[in-house]
C-alpha cells in the first residue's frame, strides 16, 4: 500500500549500541549460514534444487493468498483475524463440494445442497473441467466473502473501541466455530478433492530441450496455481490502488477519524476490506484444493499461522510484503523439506516468526509500529 | 485472615465486607478439602455422581486446570500480557518429570530420596523436589523466552508466545533425534552435529514416578500418607493438588497486593505512564511472565506424574486457548472468577458435554427420534460460541474484577474518550 510519508520523529544520531551490533552480527551469521547451505545444496544436486524451488514457489503463492487476507484486515483495524485461516479451510471444503456435484451450505446438523457444480474427475472433458473450476472460483469466493463479512458484522463491529484483547478473543472464538462447522460438514478425517488438473510435465520432460535430469520440473498443476493467483493479485492491486473503494481503504488504514471526516463511510470500508479478504481466502481455497488435492478441518489453523508468519515477514499491513513473505516462506519450507529435515519445518517457520518479531517487527517492507518497539 | 488484610480489602472495596463475603471463601475451602469424604455418600452422590459425574479423577483434572488458569491469570489478567503459548510451560513441567523422575535416561543410575525401587535405571529425584524443579525449570524458560520478547506489545506478543507454544511441543515431538553440536569439523559448516534422544519423540516418556512419603509416615498414619501414590486410591492425589492450589491462591493474593502487583496493574493500564512513574517495565513484565510460567510448570509436573506418562500430542494449542478462555470467561484479573471459569469449563470439556450429550440422546430416544447427536464432538464449536457470546455480552467475565469492569464500561462514564487520545496520540509518540 502506498503510504503518505509521515513526518519522522527526530532521530538522534548516536553510536550503535552493543546490542545492535550483536543483532547485526547474529543476522549476518544466520544469513551466511543459510546462504552457504542453499548454494552448496544447489551445487550438489542442481536438478533437485530446481524442483524444490518450483514446489516452494507454488506453495508460496498459496501462502501469499492467505497472507493477503491477514495483512488487509490488520492494515485497516489492527486485528489479527484468527478466523481467516479457517475461512480458507471452508473455501477448500466448498471447492471439494462443487467438484463432487453441488454447492453446499453447511448448517451444523444438516447441509443444504444446491446442484450448482458438476462431478468431475481427471478424465472429464475440458469443458466440464473449465466449468467446474469457474463455478468453484465464483461460488467458493462468494461463500468465503459472505462468511467473513458476517463475522465482521456480528463479532468485530460491536467491539470496536473496546480494549484490543476483546476482538482478538472473539476472533479465536470464530476460528473455533468455523472449525466446528468444518468438522460437522465433512467429518474429522482427510477430505479428498477430485483431482482435475493432470500432473503432466510441461517443462523439463526427458528428451525435451530443457531436459535437466530425472526430475519433473514444471507441471500443469504448478502452472494452474500461477494462472489463478496472478490474476487475483493483479485484480487486488488494481482494486486497492486505482479504485475509489481502494482509496477509501487506504485512507481508513492511515487514519480512521480523518477518513470519516472526509466523508468516507468507515463501517462500509471495513466491511469491504473483510469482503476482499474473504474473497482472496476463497480463491486460495480453490487453488489449494486444485494443487494439493486433500484437505481437512484443521487445515486453517496451521496454514493460517504459516500465512500469518508470511504476512509478518513481509511487513504486516503491506500488500506486496505479504506476497513476498508468502513466497519466501514457501521457499524456506520447501528447501527445509527437500534438503534439511522435514520434521523441523514447522519449527523453522515459527522460529523465523519469532526472530522477525523480535529483531525486525516491521518486517521486510513494513513500517515500524508501536507494538514492535 | 489478618486484620491488616481485612482493612486492605475494605479500603479496596470501598465499604465493609458483607458477612457472606467473609465466610464464603472459607466454606468453599472446607467443601473442597472434604470432598473425597462425602461425594460418594448417598444424599450427595445423587448430585455429584449420578447427575454430574464428578468422580475424583474428573475433579482432579478440574483442579489441575484451576491452577493453570491461576498461573495464566497472573500473566494475562494482572500484567495484561496476552500469552497464547502457555501450554509450553505446562509441557515443560511434565517433561521435567520425564527427565528427572523416570527411567528415561537408562544409562544413568542416580537416585535421590526417591521412592522408586532400589537400583532403578534412570534419574530418580524425590517427586516433591521434582514438582518444585518443574517450577524452577519453567521459570528459567520463562525468563529466557520473555527476555527478548516482552519488549513487544499486544498482538505481537500474543503471536510470539503462540510461536513458542507451537515450537515447544514440536521440539518435544522431534527431539528423539535432536541435533546437538557435538564437535568441530574441518570443512563447513564447521560444526559437527550428533543426534540426541531427549524425549523419545512421539512415543513419549512413560513410567513416571509418583509422589509419596517415607516408610515411617506410612506406617504411623496407617497408610493415609502412603510411600507411593497409587492409581487406585486417588485421595492423596486430590489433597496434593488442592493444597497446591491453596498455596497458589495465597501467594497470588499476596502478590496482587504487593508493590509488584500494583506495578503489574500500572503496566497493564498504560505502559508509558507506568514507565514515566518509574516502574521498570521489563523487570515487572518478566516477573509476571516468570511467575505465571512457574505455576504452569509445577502443575505440569504434577499432571505428568498423575497421568504417568508424557506425550507431545497432549500439549496442543487448544490447551493454551482453553486456559485463556477460562481466564476470560471467569473474569480476567479476579482470582475467584478465574477459578470458577476453570472449574466450569474443564468440567464441560472433560465430562459435562458427554453428560449433556447422553441426556439429550436419552430424551430424544424417549420422544422416539432414532438418532444420536455426538455433542462432545462439537466441543470446539461450543467453546467458540461461548467465547464470542461472552465477549459480546459480558466481556468482563462471570465474576469480574472491579477495575476491569470499570475499564470495559468506561465509555458510559466518559463520553468519547477517543477524542482526547487523538489530540495527543500517545501511541505514535511512544513509537519514536
How is this structure best described in words?
The complex is a heterodimer of chains A (373) and B (432). Chain A contains twelve helices and six strands. By secondary structure, chain A is mainly alpha-helical. Chain A has a single domain (61-372), classed as ABC transporter involved in vitamin B12 uptake, BtuC, CATH 1.10.3470. A two-stranded antiparallel ribbon of chain A has the order 1-2. In chain A, strands 3-6 form a two-stranded antiparallel ribbon. In chain A, a hairpin with a 2-residue loop joins strand 1 and strand 2. In chain A, helix 2 runs antiparallel to helix 11 and helix 3 (84-99) packs across helix 9. The model of chain A has no long low-confidence stretch (mean pLDDT 84). Chain B has helices spanning 3-13, 19-38, 42-51, 56-78, 87-100, 127-149, 154-174, 215-220, 235-256, 259-269, 271-276, 281-307, 317-330, 335-367, 379-393, 402-408, 410-413, 417-423, 426-431, and strands at 109-112, 122-125, 178-184, 191-196, 205-206, 309-310. In chain B, strands 1-2 form a two-stranded parallel ribbon. In chain B, strands 3-4 form a two-stranded antiparallel ribbon. Chain B has a two-stranded antiparallel ribbon with strand order 5-6. Chain B has 19 helices and six strands. By secondary structure, chain B is mostly helical. In chain B, strand 3 and strand 4 form a beta hairpin. Chain B starts with a helix and ends with a helix. Chain B has a single domain, classed as ABC transporter involved in vitamin B12 uptake, BtuC (Orthogonal Bundle), CATH 1.10.3470. The model of chain B is unreliable at 1-14 and 412-432 (pLDDT under 50). Chains A and B meet through helix 1, helix 5, helix 10 and helix 12 of A and helix 7, helix 13, helix 15 and helix 19 of B.
Amino acid at each position: 500500500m502506498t503510504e503518505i510519508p509521515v513526518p519522522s520523529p527526530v532521530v538522534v544520531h548516536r553510536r550503535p549500541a552493543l546490542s545492535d551490533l550483536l543483532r547485526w552480527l547474529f543476522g549476518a551469521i544466520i544469513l551466511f549460514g543459510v546462504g552457504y547451505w542453499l548454494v552448496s545444496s544447489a551445487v550438489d544436486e542442481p536438478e533437485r534444487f530446481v524442483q524444490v524451488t518450483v514446489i516452494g514457489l507454488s506453495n508460496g503463492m498459496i501462502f501469499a493468498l492467505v497472507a493477503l487476507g491477514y495483512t488487509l484486515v490488520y492494515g485497516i483495524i489492527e486485528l489479527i483475524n484468527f478466523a481467516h485461516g479457517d475461512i480458507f479451510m471452508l473455501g477448500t471444503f466448498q471447492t471439494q463440494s462443487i467438484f463432487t456435484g453441488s454447492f453446499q451450505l453447511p448448517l451444523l446438523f444438516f447441509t443444504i445442497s444446491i446442484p450448482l457444480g458438476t462431478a468431475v474427475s481427471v478424465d472429464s472433458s475440458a469443458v466440464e473441467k473449465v466449468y467446474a473450476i469457474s463455478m468453484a472460483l465464483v461460488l467458493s469466493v462468494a461463500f468465503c466473502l459472505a462468511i467473513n463479512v458476517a463475522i465482521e458484522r456480528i463479532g468485530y463491529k460491536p467491539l470496536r473501541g473496546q480494549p484490543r484483547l476483546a476482538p482478538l478473543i472473539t476472533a479465536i472464538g470464530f476460528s473455533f466455530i468455523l472449525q466446528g462447522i468444518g468438522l460437522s460438514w465433512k467429518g474429522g478425517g482427510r477430505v479428498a478433492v477430485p483431482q482435475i488438473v493432470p500432473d503432466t510435465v510441461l517443462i523439463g520432460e526427458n528428451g525435451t530441450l530443457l531436459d535437466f535430469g530425472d526430475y519433473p520440473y514444471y507441471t500443469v498443476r504448478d502452472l494452474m496455481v500461477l494462472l489463478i493467483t496472478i490474476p487475483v493479485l493483479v485484480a487486488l492491486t488494481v482494486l486497492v490502488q486505482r479504485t475509489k473503494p481502494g482509496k477509501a481503504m487506504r485512507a481508513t488504514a492511515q487514519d480512521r477519524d480523518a477518513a470519516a471526516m472526509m466523508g468516507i463511510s468507515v463501517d462500509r470500508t471495513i466491511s469491504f476490506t473483510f469482503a476482499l479478504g474473504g474473497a482472496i481466502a476463497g480463491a486460495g481455497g480453490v487453488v489449494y484444493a486444485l494443487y494439493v488435492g486433500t484437505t481437512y478441518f484443521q487445515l486453517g489453523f496451521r496454514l493460517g499461522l504459516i500465512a500469518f508468519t508470511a504476512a509478518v515477514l513481509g511487513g504486516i499491513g503491506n500488500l506486496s510484503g505479504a506476497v513476498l513473505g508468502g513466497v519466501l516462506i514457501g521457499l524456506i519450507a520447501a528447501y527445509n523439506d527437500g534438503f534439511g529435515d522435514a520434521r523441523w519445518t514447522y519449527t523453522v517457520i515459527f522460529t523465523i516468526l519469532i526472530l522477525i518479531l523480535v529483531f525486525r517487527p516491521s518486517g521486510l517492507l513494513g513500517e515500524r509500529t508501536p507494538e514492535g518497539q | 485472615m489478618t486484620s491488616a488484610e481485612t482493612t486492605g480489602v475494605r479500603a479496596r472495596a470501598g465499604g465493609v465486607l458483607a458477612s457472606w463475603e467473609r465466610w464464603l471463601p472459607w466454606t468453599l475451602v472446607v467443601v473442597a478439602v472434604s470432598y473425597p469424604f462425602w461425594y460418594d455418600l448417598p444424599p450427595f452422590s445423587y448430585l455429584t455422581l449420578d447427575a454430574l459425574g464428578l468422580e475424583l479423577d474428573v475433579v482432579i483434572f478440574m483442579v489441575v486446570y484451576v491452577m493453570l488458569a491461576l498461573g495464566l491469570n497472573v500473566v494475562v489478567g494482572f500484567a495484561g500480557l496476552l500469552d497464547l503459548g502457555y501450554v509450553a510451560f505446562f509441557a515443560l513441567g511434565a517433561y521435567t518429570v520425564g527427565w528427572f523422575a523416570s527411567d528415561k535416561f537408562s544409562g544413568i543410575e542416580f537416585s535421590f530420596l526417591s521412592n522408586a525401587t532400589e537400583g532403578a535405571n534412570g534419574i530418580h529425584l524425590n517427586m516433591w523436589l521434582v514438582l518444585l524443579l518443574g517450577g524452577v525449570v519453567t521459570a528459567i524458560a520463562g525468563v529466557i523466552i520473555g527476555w527478548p520478547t516482552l519488549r513487544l506489545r499486544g498482538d505481537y506478543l500474543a503471536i510470539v508466545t503462540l510461536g513458542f507454544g507451537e515450537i515447544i511441543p514440536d521440539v518435544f515431538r522431534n527431539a528423539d533425534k535432536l541435533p546437538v553440536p557435538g564437535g568441530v569439523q574441518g570443512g563447513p559448516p564447521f560444526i559437527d552435529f550428533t543426534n540426541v534422544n531427549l524425549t523419545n519423540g512421539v512415543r513419549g516418556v512413560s513410567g513416571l514416578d509418583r509422589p509419596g512419603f517415607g516408610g515411617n509416615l506410612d506406617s504411623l498414619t496407617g497408610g493415609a500418607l502412603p510411600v507411593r501414590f497409587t492409581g487406585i486410591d486417588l485421595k492423596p492425589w486430590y489433597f496434593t493438588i488442592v493444597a497446591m492450589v491453596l498455596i497458589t491462591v495465597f501467594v497470588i493474593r499476596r502478590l496482587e497486593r504487593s508493590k509488584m502487583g500494583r506495578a503489574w496493574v500500572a503496566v497493564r493500564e498504560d505502559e508509558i505512564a507506568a514507565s514515566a512513574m518509574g516502574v521498570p517495565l521489563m523487570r515487572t513484565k518478566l516477573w509476571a511472565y516468570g511467575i505465571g510460567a512457574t505455576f504452569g510448570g509445577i502443575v505440569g509436573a504434577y499432571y505428568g506424574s498423575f497421568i504417568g506418562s508424557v506425550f507431545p500430542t497432549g500439549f496442543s494449542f487448544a490447551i493454551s486457548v482453553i486456559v485463556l478462555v477460562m481466564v476470560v470467561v471467569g473474569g480476567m484479573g479476579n482470582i475467584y472468577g478465574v477459578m470458577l471459569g476453570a472449574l466450569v469449563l474443564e468440567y464441560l470439556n472433560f465430562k459435562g458435554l458427554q453428560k449433556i450429550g447422553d441426556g439429550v440422546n436419552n430424551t430424544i430416544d424417549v420422544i422416539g427420534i432414532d438418532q444420536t447427536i455426538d455433542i462432545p464432538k462439537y466441543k470446539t464449536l461450543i467453546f467458540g460460541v461461548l467465547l464470542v457470546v461472552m465477549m459480546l455480552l459480558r466481556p468482563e467475565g462471570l465474576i469480574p474484577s472491579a477495575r476491569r469492569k470499570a475499564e470495559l464500561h468506561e465509555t458510559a462514564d466518559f463520553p468519547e474518550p477517543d477524542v482526547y487520545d487523538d489530540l495527543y496520540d500517545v501511541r505514535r509518540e511512544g513509537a519514536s
